[in-house]
Each structure stands twice: as structure tokens, then as C-alpha cells.
Model the fold of this input.
Amino acid sequence: MLPTQRRSQSRSFALLAFASVALPSVALAFFVRNFGVNVVINDEWSMIPIYGRMIDGNLNFADLFAQHNEHRIFFPRMVMLLVERLTSFNTVAEMYLSWALITATVAIIFYMFWRANGGTTDFKTLAYFLPISLLMFSFRQEEAILWGFACSIYFAILGVVAALFLLDRAISNERFFPFSILCGILASYSFLTGLIVWPAGVIQIVLAIGDRAKRARRFVMWSLSGLIVTALYLHNYHFPGQAATSHNPFRIAEYFLAVLGAPFTFEPAYLAASIGAVLALIALLVIYQAREAKMLRANAVWISLIFFVAMSALAATLGRSDLGVSQALSSRYTPITILGIIGLYSFAISASRYYKGMGRSFCVHALLTLVLLGLIVSAGAGWQIGQQTRVERQMAIQVLQNYPTEPDAVIVKYLNPNPTLVREWTRYLKVNRLNVFAGGNRTEMSLLPPANLLSPMEGIMVYKLMRILAQVRSILHSLPLFTFHL
Done:
């Protein structure tokens, strides 16, 4: 190939690589743009007292490091406070923060995938990467992406991916190793399951490094860092109430498999569990192929990523399996689970390239089929759930604005299980013109009756009607003859 042709191919490859990340990213941003609503709900109320201390100049390290449920969200708290200060406590801005974290994570995964596939400008690499990008930006994570407080999950995901990536780079360049530890700290103090990055890193070190002395040295340094981080995490740690662990082994297995299969379906739970079982079988087959092809060491980073997700799913199972298998389908888990599917898919591509036996591409094609079907399901159902979420959050705005007269039951349903907390800190939001009380904050549902008079179905119907009226109003206002207002 001539030098000019190589330069042209490199430019085309770079442009298409950018598009493979940017276009799905824009689609998810559009999802947030359509369905994100600026209103404080659920755990977000815990940020208001901390915000108040920051404004008063009384914020300290203990406030940032304080335990939230079973998590220590030190890094997300700092960034959320900054975003809230800059945006008058706009929770949609935090949703866009989550989107930015996903985009950064996908960029790192692309580089990992590109290096693992030879680091060339082969367009086949982009074709294989596209399902990864589409999966990472899937609408199946609708609950997490449309809840600003869930950015803590995305901080942890970014930290885990970056830590394992830098740990892989540190094999050939030791200067990357301290940065991998820093990313492990980011993951650990963002979300509880981020702590699993340390045993996942141990697996990667053991598999990837051939030199015994170097492997032992790296193992000790990484393990010691993980022990220190975990010890600090557990300092003055208050374990939540008794875990909701089922005593039925079949229910535990079903819950675990449903968590694994949840990114591909919304319901029913048994279908998610069946898909999870298929994924587990594919994983065993890929490990066999890689072992036969002597490719386990070359895929250590993907194996450690799969291990991280498997242990995260196990932790969720041990903590919540007694709540019912349908709870495993919560999209709050899917951003983490998707990482494991991506790791398995990338591992399968590598193994199929060097495995010489029959059915070498079966695992790759099976995973591609699952991803394609899952994307089709998540696109339609995710969009529909996004519409419903927007209606509920618009109703929450109404409740928040009418908080003095709303019954406690309505506040519990739309805002937070603690009505006293809501009433106390809503006054703070109102006095300081924050969130829904900030200037210029308007709602398309401002003409609705109180939330307790509408059923969810009625709310959706009214919301659609108000959207139509808003579009008609926009068209009429563009004509000079019409000056009336709805």
C-alpha cells in the first residue's frame, strides 16, 4: 500500500472510530435530553444538608467520606457538589455527568479493544467494536441514567475499567502502575462493588505477568494497596440491616443468572435467568477455547473484567435475592453487568482467532445475536419507560411545589420515604432558589391538578396531551398573526 493510501486509510479509520463512539453517545444524550427532569428524589435528598454545609463554609472531610447506605461515595460527592453549586442543584446536569463518564469509559474500552486486536487500521476491528459501543450506551440503563445520584455507579465503572487498563499497560511500562492504583481508589470510594477491583486486579496480575519476581512484586504492591483502601473503607463502618439473602439455593441461582441476563430483556424474570445461563455456558466454552489456544495470558484484562462483574452480581444476589427475582431486573445493575458482557465478547473474539477446533466462531456469533436482540428490545421498551419516568418526575415537581398541602403518602410515593425530611429541606430549596425553585425552571405539567388526584395512566395521558399542546403553541407562536398564550 502506498504511503498516501495508508494515510487516507488511517484518517478514515480515525473518523469511523470517532463515529462509533460519538453517535451512540449522542443517542443516549438525546435520551437524557428528552426524559431527564430536574427534581430531587430518593437518595438525592441526602445531598442537600451537605450542600448547605458547603455553602455555609462548614464542609469537612468527614461529610464527604461519610457512609451512604453501604457505600462510601467520596469522589461522586465532591463532583456532585461542584455541579450542584454551578447549576443551582440541577439534577439533570448530574445525569449529563453520568453520560460524560460513560463516554470516557467507552473511549478507554475502545483503546483496549483496538490494542487487543493488533492496533491496526483494519475496518473489521470497528465492525466488531460497534456492538460494544451500542451496548454501553443502551437505553436498558434508563433508571440509572435518568437519576442524577446514580453517577456514583458510573464513577465506579470508569475507575474499574481505567484501573484494569492501566494495570495491563503497566506490564510493559511500570510508570502506569501507580495510576492504576489511583483508579482503583476512585472505584472503591465511589460505589461498594468498586472494592472488587482489587481481587480482579490480582487475577490479572497472576495471569498476565510471566516473570515470577516481577509478578510477586506487583502482586504484593497491588494487594497491599487494596488492603489499605479496604481497611479505611471499613473504619467506623456501620453494616446495614441483615442482608435479604434467600435460603433457597434455586432462588439464589435464578437471581444471580437473572442479574447477568438483565441487560438483554426487561421481563419476564425467567427469560433473563435463561439468558444468564446461556452467557455462563458461553463463558465456559470461551475459557476452554482460550486454554486450548494458550491465549489466557493475552486476555487477562478481559478475564479480570468478567470476574469483576461476576463477583458484583454475586454480591447483589447475596444482598437482595430474598426480595424476589424480579428485583434482579432493576436497570440500576445493568451498567455494571454490561461490562462483563463486553469482556466476554472481547475475550471470545480473541479466542476464536487462535482456536483451531470446530465451532471457533460460535461464541462470537451467539453473543452478537444476543446483543442485537437485546438492543432491539431495549431501544423500544427503554424509550417507553423513559416516557413514563418523565411523567412521574413531572408529577414529583408538582408534589414538591405544593409540599405544604400534599399528604405524606404522596410525598413518600414521588419524592422520598421520609416526608419530614422532605418538608424541612424543601423550605431550604425554596428560600435559596434551588432545583425546581430556581429561576426559569418551568414544567409542561404546570396546569395539572394535584398529583394525588391522578393515576399513573391518567398522568401519561395528560402528559401526552400537554406535549401536543406545547407543539401547537410553538407552531402558532411562530406566526405573526397569533399572539395568544396557552
The two ends are 65 Å apart (CA to CA). Residues 442-454, 472-486 have pLDDT under 50 and may be disordered. DSSP finds 19 helices and two strands in the chain.
